[in-house]
Structure formats: C-alpha cells, structure tokens
Write a structure and sequence with these properties.
Elements (H helix, E strand, L loop, with lengths): L6 H68 L2 H24 L4 H26 L4 H87 L4 H120 L4 H118 L4 H11 L5
C-alpha cells in the first residue's frame, strides 16, 4: 500500500512517526523520574520513621523503669503519673508502627505481647510497694521480674529495629535499581528513535530516487508527456510546501516542549542539590548537638558522684552524733548519781550538787541538740537520695538521647546519599533531553531546507510547463506516480 502514496504523504508519515517516538521518549522520561522521586519519598516517610519510632519505644521503656524506681524510693505520686504518660505515649507509637510497617506486622504483634508482660511486671512491683512489702521483696521483684521483662522488651525492639534497617537498605537498593532501569530505558528509546529515523530517511530516499529515475527515463523516451507531468508536479509541490509548513510548525512546538522538559529536569536537579546541602547541614547540626549532650552527660555523672559523696559524709556525721548522744546520756546518768551522792553528804556536798545539776542540764541540752541535728541529717539524707534518683534518671535519658542522635546522624547520611543518586539521575535525564532538543532543531533546519527546495522546484516546474506544453501523455504518467487518487 505504501508504494501508491504520494511524496508529501510519505514524508508526512515519516516525520509523524518521528514525532510520535519523541513524545514517547519524553513521556517515559517524565514518568520514570516521577517514580524515582516517589520511591525516595516513601523511603523517608515509612522506613526512616519506623526506625525513629523503635528508638522512641526503647527510650520510653527506660523512662518507665526509672519511674517505678523513683516511686519505690520516694513513694511520690508524680512518678506514677510519669509512668502512665510513658505508657500512653508507647501505645500511640505502637499503633503508628502497626499502621506503617506492613509486612513487618508480625514483629509489631510480638512486641505488643512483650509490652503486655512488661506492663504486668510494672503493675506487680507497684502492687507490692502499695501493700507495704519488705524492701527485700521489692528489690527481688524489681530485679527478677521487671528487669527481666525490660530486657525481653529491649530485645524485641532491637529485632524490630534490625528488620526495619534491612527494609530501609532494601528500599535504597530498589531506588538505585529503579534509577538505573530508568536510564537504560531512556537510552534504549532514544537509540530506537534514532535508528528508526535513519531507516525512515533511507527508505524515503530510495523510494523517491526510484520514482524520479523512472520519470527521467520516461521524459527521455517521450517528451510529449512532459507538460502534464510538469503541471502535476507543480500542483504536488505546492501541496508538499504546505505540508512542509505544517510539519515545521509541529517540529517547532515539539522543540519548545523538549526545552520545557530540559528546564524541568534542570530545576529538579537544582532542588535535589539544595536537598543534599540541607541534609549535610542537618548532619553537622546533629553532630554538634551530640557533642553538647555528651558534655551534659559528663556533668550529670559528676553531680551524681558529688551527691553520693555527700550521702556518705552525712552517714559519718550520723555516726558521730550517735557517739555524742551516748556521751550525753552517760553524762546525765553520772550527774544524777553525783546529785544523789551530794544529797547524802549533807551540807558539805551542797556545792557539788549544784555543779552536778548544771552538768545534767548541759547533758540534756546536748541530747536535745543531738536529736535536732539527727533530724536535719535525716532530711538531708532523704533529699540526697531523691536527688541521686532524679539525677540517675536524667543521666539515663541523656544517654538514650545520645544514642538516638547518633542513629539520626546515620539516617541523615543515608538520606544525603540517596539525594545525590537522585541528582545524578536528574542531570543525566537533563543531558539526554538537551541532546534530543538539539536533534529536533537539526531536523527543523533540514525541513526548512526541504521546503525552500520545494519552492524552487515549483518555480522550475512552472518554467518547464511553459516550454513543454506538448507533453500531455507524460504528465498523466507523472500524475499516477505522485497522486494516484487524482489520476
């Protein structure tokens, strides 16, 4: 069927096919870029968030253990409130992970079972504390049950964190593979478009050359057919010039579209560069915060040591007060005995009785002062114990924050690497689009040259028509070649 097509129809079909291939390459490029960006966003929103939630559960577990310990030491209600708040926050985090993890849901279910046992152990220790159990029972329940459940809970969280880390690495590899596949697909479509364009040009050249050669041989054999052929050729060339104008307009629109795609790819690359820079700045900020928290951790440890030393010194003061109290009691007894003996001595022992009475009063005052000092020492010791517990809780919280900052820094470095890969892919797409725009410009120039040649051929055909009015038979043959429908 293609052998009966006119010259303009064949050329228009060829360039229409080239335009279709160009649009297809552009569509594949944009779609692949969107998939890469969507995959990167999914990695940040799902996998990285799940890792942060797992670390938050670990921190909340430590906070609950610290709250139970604080209540055992001080019996204050604020530690119960802190325990309830930590439980509610852990429930919120677990529910969020249940909705987000997907295929890791069995690990979250197992974590919820361990969480239930952990909570039962906390409630059991609190029940013993409220029932006035002995300190040995409380320490045994705290060490054997609560700490054992705490370790099991930490192991479950560690297992979930490891699984999430593997999922994050798998998503990262998937993004890299998707980027590579996108690049290969764009290159394949580009090569196919170029090969088809070359084959189309060769086919048009061979077909047109065959038709022109046949027409020349007929002109040489029969000059009487030249007039009709020239007339038909002039009409066909006018139609061809019109088609060339339309094709030129279409190619110009395609060129503008290609340039817009190149500009969009360039903006995507610039945004990826800005994202990478922000990720690097965030990494530096996290490092500085990590150093500050390390300094705070050292200061808290120093405070704990000083408070423990203060507790030991208060115990030593209590020991000295015991000795002073004992001396006061013995002095009081001696003074009473001396008073009794002085009373038995009569008038000679009256002065000695006055001295013994003063000594007894002094011993009483010493005993009273000793009791007041002991009460103050007990209050200081209680305050020291409370401060030590609070400082220990703060120390553990700071330590957990330090580990979390380190993991956040690792996540930021991984994100920065992903953004760098995305930037490279966007730049490669931008380069391919620019090359495509250059090729379209060259095609546009070639079409303009062909259109100019068609106009010049039309003028030549008009001159030939004036000098070859006798060649009617050849005109009919050329009409059948160039426009079979009109013939």
């Amino acid at each position: 069927m293609g052998q009966n097509w006119s010259f303009g129809r064949k050329l228009g079909a060829g360039f229409a096919l080239l335009v279709l291939l160009t649009v297809l390459v552009s569509y594949v490029t944009v779609s692949s870029l969107r998939e890469v960006v969507a995959l990167k966003d999914r990695v940040l929103e799902v996998n990285a968030r799940a890792l942060v939630d797992a670390q938050q559960l670990e921190t909340l577990a430590e906070a609950r253990v610290a709250a139970v310990r604080g209540y055992l030491v001080t019996r204050e209600q604020q530690y119960i409130d802190e325990l309830m708040d930590a439980r509610r926050e852990a429930e919120v985090v677990t529910e969020r992970m249940q909705r987000a993890v997907g295929e890791l849901a069995p690990l979250v279910d197992a974590l919820e079972l361990v969480e239930a046992d952990f909570r039962k152990a906390q409630d059991e220790v609190l029940r013993l504390a409220r029932s006035d159990a002995s300190p040995e029972q409380l320490r045994g329940a705290f060490a054997s049950e609560l700490r054992q459940q705490r370790r099991l809970f930490g192991a479950a969280v560690k297992k979930l964190s490891d699984a999430e880390d593997q999922a994050l690495q798998a998503a990262t590899r998937s993004a890299s593979e998707q980027t590579s596949a996108t690049i290969r697909l764009v290159l394949v479509f580009t090569v196919v478009a170029i090969v088809l364009g070359i084959l189309l040009a060769a086919w048009l050249t061979r077909t047109i050359s065959r038709q022109i050669t046949s027409a020349v041989s007929q002109v040489q054999s029969s000059s009487t057919e030249l007039q009709a052929a020239a007339n038909q050729q002039a009409a066909g060339l006018r139609e061809q010039a019109t088609a060339m104008t339309e094709i030129t307009t279409t190619i110009s629109e395609l060129l503008a579209t290609s340039r817009q795609i190149a500009e969009s790819a360039q903006r995507v690359a610039a945004m990826a560069n800005d994202t990478a820079s922000s990720a690097r700045n965030g990494d530096q900020t996290v490092e500085r915060a990590h150093e500050s928290i390390g300094s705070i951790q050292r200061q808290v440890e120093l405070i704990v040591n000083h408070m423990l030393d203060l507790g030991r010194k208060s115990q030593q003061i209590g020991t000295v007060l015991d000795i002073v109290s004992e001396l006061a009691e013995q002095t009081n007894i001696v003074a009473i005995n001396a008073t009794i003996e002085a009373s038995g001595a009569g008038e000679a022992g009256r002065r000695f009785a006055v001295v013994a009475d003063e000594i007894r009063k002094l011993a009483d005052r010493v005993a009273t002062s000793t009791k007041e000092i002991r009460s103050l020492i007990d209050e200081v010791r209680s305050a020291v114990n409370t401060t030590v517990m609070a400082t220990e809780t703060g120390y553990k919280t700071v330590d957990a924050g330090t580990r979390q900052f380190g993991e956040v820094a690792t996540s930021l470095r991984q994100i920065s690497g992903l953004v760098v890969n995305t930037t490279e892919a966007a730049r490669e797409i931008e380069l391919s689009t620019k090359q495509q725009s250059t090729a379209v410009e060259q095609v546009n120039v070639a079409i303009a040259s062909v259109a100019q040649a068609s106009k010049e051929t039309e003028a030549s055909a008009s001159q030939t028509l004036q000098t070859a009015s006798q060649l009617t038979a050849l005109s009919r043959d050329l009409m059948r070649i160039l426009q079979p429908e009109a013939a």
